Every structure is written in structure tokens, then in C-alpha cells.
Amino acid sequence: MGRERKIALGLAAGFLAAYFLPVEAARFQGAVTESLRLVRWYAREHVLLCLVPAFFIAGAIGVFVRQDAVMKYFGPKAHKALAYGVASVSGTILAVCSCTVLPLFGGIYLRGAGLGPAIAFLYSGPAINVLAIVLTARVLGWQLGLARSVGAVSFSVVIGLLMHLIFLKEERAKAAQVQDVYMGDDDGKDHPLWQVALYFLSMVGILVFANWGKPMEPAGVWFAIYKTKWIVTALFAVLLGLCLWRFFRVRLAYIALAAVPPLLLAGAFPGHPVVAFAAGSAGLTVLTFVGGADLKDWRDQTWGFAKQILPLLFMGVLAAGFFLGSPGSKDAGIVPNVWIQALVGDSPSSLLSIFGKPEGTHIQWLETIWPLWTNLFASITGALMYFATLTEVPILRGLLDSGMGQGPALALLLAGPALSLPSMLVINSILGPRKTLTFVGLVVAMATITGMIFGGLVT
After folding, report:
1. pLDDT tens across 245-296, in order?
2. 3-state secondary structure string, the chain?
3. Residue among 242, 382, 278, 240 nearest 45 (CA)
4. CA–centroid distance for 355 within its chain
5. Position 65 pLDDT exceeds 60
6. What would you report as the CA-atom Rg of the chain, rounded to the nearest whole angstrom?
7. Do 324 and 381 touch, CB atoms closer than 8 A?
8. Would the pTM of this model clear 0.85, i.e. be above it?
9. What is the pLDDT of residue 183?
């Protein structure tokens, strides 16, 4: 009866929600439109350039990376300084968003990496982006830039270690189980290390340079890289083709045929390189059907990650757009922007004015808890919002100009890029609800505390 009662209650709740759906309300209509707009933006800006290369890399990890290598550097019994050191600085190379890092995290975790190093990698991948940190210092001030860089590196290590300690019993059981499986059979493909390294270098290069963000200033090294990013991406694509030919015995004629559509489309649509990129991705998929058993396994692993992760990501993006709007939106989500700005200000005066209190009103208990509240709210909001790489900086600039405090700004910077509602859904499918809630709670708690300390130091 218990199961039937839950089904009946669920149906009743669904009926009531549908019956009282406020479809006539302008804010509700705007929030629905905003959720669809965010999904369209996400599909255009991130699926082809970010997620597709990430899925291919994650699939390759599952097929071509030997389990003993993962166990040696990231496993539960790996040298802690090496494991956490490598994982904590991975974002300086990858420069990906919270969703793009998920297939890579799933690849190394399911391959046998310990929970602690895997979590450190999961946090650091989107959080420790050199270009984002430089942009933060340039646009938001050197104090925030320095605090973000120090906080992101230390967060990844501390949160990873805490997750390892909290779930120590499960980690020991997993270590024994993985070790037994490894001693019996390591199904990693037998390719020399230098071949595997070159193969992964080509794919990581495509991922990094295809997503290289445009700097604020049209000058300097970062802008020079941005101007040539598609040339560099094409060179890494050529390197990948050579790897498929020499290491995986794909016929050179097939590779040349797969390269024809991207070249033609690049010439036909010079201002839309993503069209050629999409054709190249489709060509690579076709090559996996003519490349033998190795590439078939690669394709199967890649598809496994895609069908597990993509639906959850799109559901999360829809929800994030509905509640908080899309980047650059003006008060379009179901939660008004004016409320968000009032709840993260230096003082509660903006919030009191919304409730009709006269200017200069002081409520002692509210002012006492205000630093804790603003940093906690900024951390939770940042954890739920979706930030593409570099977009958090101009969004925060607008919030700071609207009265946001320095402490909540840092809290949002430390919680936002590493988490989002879409990423939480995917992490839950990999780790389960207990580990996911613990990870999210640790990020929010540490971001809140760090924001309070930073706010106290700079004011």
C-alpha cells in the first residue's frame, strides 16, 4: 500500500499543479520563455563545441586508458600529494564549464579513481580557469581575482579530502573491489603510452581552443590566441586524424573523405565556424564505424555517456532558466532580479525598501545576521545558476554595480562556476544522492564562510 499511496499522492499533486497553473500571469509566461531561450542558447553555444568533444574524451578514457594508470595516479591508494596536486590544477589546462567537465569526471571516476581526487578534479575543472581569473582581476578588482584563484585551488583539495574522509568506509570497500577487478583483468587497450598521450592531446586541444573565450580587451596574448583559435583547433583536428590513421589503422582515404565536408563548409560559411565543427564531429562519428574494434568500443563508451548525461543537462537548463533567467536577461525568471540584488547587498536597506520601510530604518537582528545571510544566499544562488565559461564576470559586474557586497561576490564566484542545477542532476546519477548532497553542501558552506571572511577583510 505504501507504494500505491505514493503514486496516488504524486498523481494528486500533479493534477493540482496543472489545475492551478498560472498560465495567464506575465511573469510565469516570461519564465517559460526564458527557460526555452536558455535551452536554445545552451544548445547553440555548448553542446557542439563543449559537450561533444568532452563525450569523445570521456569515452576514450573508458577504452584506452589502462586501469593501472588511473589507480596509480588517482586511485584510493595513490600518493595523496600527487593525486590531489594534479586534480586541483586541472582547470588551468581544461578551461571548461561545470557541465563540460561532467563526462570527464565520470570517465575517471568509473575507471577507478578515488572519490577525493575525482571530486577535486570535478571542482577544479571549471573553477580554476586562468583566463577567467585574469578577467576577474581586471574587471572586478585584483582582490577578488587573487581571492578567487587561492580559494579555488584550496577548495578543490579541501573538499576532495573531506569527501574522502566522510565516505572513507565506502572508499575502502571500493578500493578493494576495484583492486580485485584490476588483478583479474585490465581491459584498457594495449597501445604505447606515447600514442595514447598524443591521441588525448589532440582531443583536449580541440576542446580547449574551440571554446577559447573572447577577452575583454582586443590586445595582448589572450586576444592573439583568440584570433587564431580556429586555426589551432584545425591543427589539433589534423593531429587527431593522423592518430586515427597511424595508431588505429583507419584508412587514410576515409579520413580524407571525412575532412571534405568541414573544409567545404568552412569556406562556404566563414563567419560560422561551428558549422564546420559540427560536420567534423559527424565525420569523426562515421569514422568510428570503419575503424575496427577499438573505435567501436570508443563509440559505444561515448554514446553511453551522452545518453546518460544529455537528458539530465537539458532538464536542468530548463529549470535554471525558468527560475533565474538566461544570461543577460532583465528580470525574466520567476525569481525577480530585484530580489536577488536586494538579498546580496552590503546592507538590508534595499530589502527593507521592497517591503515599504522608510529609508534609514534599522532592524538590529537583521543587520546582525546580514553578512551570514548574504553570503549563504549568494552561494546557493551561484550553485543553482548556470554559468558558461567567463560569463560569471560580466554578470557579477552588474550585481556589484547594483550594490552587491564583495564577500557575496566571492562566494558566488567560488560556488557558481563549479556547480549548477544541470550539473547536480548528472552528478547525482553518477555518485548517488548522499554523495551529491554532501558535495553541494560542502561547496556552499565553504563558499559562505570564505565570503564572510573576505567581506570582513576588505571592508
Report:
1. 988 888 999 999 999 999 999 888 888 889 999 999 999 999 999 877 888 8
2. CHHHHHHHHHHHHHHHHHHCCCCCCHHHHHHHHHHHHHHHHHHHHHHHHHHHHHHHHHHHHHHHCCHHHHHHHHCCCCCHHHHHHHHHCCHHHHCCCCCCHHHHHHHHHHCCCCHHHHHHHHHHHHHCCHHHHHHHHHHHCHHHHHHHHHHHHHHHHHHHHHHHHHCHHHHHHHHHHHHHHHHHCCCCCCCCHHHHHHHHHHHHHHHHHHCCCCCCCCCHHHHHHHHCHHHHHHHHHHHHHHHHHHHCCCCHHHHHHHHHHHHHHHHHCCCCHHHHHHHHHHHHHHHCCCCCHHHHHHHHHHHHHHHHHHHHHHHHHHHHHHHHCCCCCCCCCCCCHHHHHHHCECCCHHHHHHCCCCCCCCCHHHHHHHHHHHHHHHHHHHHHCCCCCCCHHHHHHHHHHCCECHHHHHHHHHHCCCCCHHHHHHHHHHHCHHHHHHHHHHHHHHHHHHHHHHHHHHC
3. 278
4. 37
5. yes
6. 24
7. yes
8. no
9. 45
130, amino acid identity? V
Return d(Cα 88, Cα 92) in angstroms, integer: 9
- In this structure, of 112-116, 153-157, 202-206, 334-338, the range with the lowest mean pLDDT score is 334-338
pLDDT of 191 strictly over 90: no
Where does the pLDDT of residue 102 fall: very low under 50, low under 70, confident under 90, or very high at 90 and above?
confident
Taking the C-alpha atoms of residue 354 and residue 377, their distance in angstroms, rounded to an integer, is: 17
CA 94 to chain centre: 11
Categorize the per-residue pLDDT at 17 as very low, low, confident or very high, splitting at 50, 70 and 90: confident
Longest alpha-carbon distance in the chain: 77
User: Which of 66-70, 341-345, 416-420 is least confident?
Assistant: 66-70
**pLDDT cut 70: percent of the chain above it:** 88
Helix pair 229-247, 220-227: axis angle to 10 deg: 60
d(CA 79, CA 73): 7
Tell me which amino acid residue 424 is: M
Could you give the CA distance from residue 100 to residue 105 in angstroms, rounded to a whole number? 9
**542558447: which residue's cell?**
41
Q: How far apart are CA 368 and CA 219, in angstroms?
A: 46
Question: Which residues sit opposite 47 in a β-bridge?
Answer: none
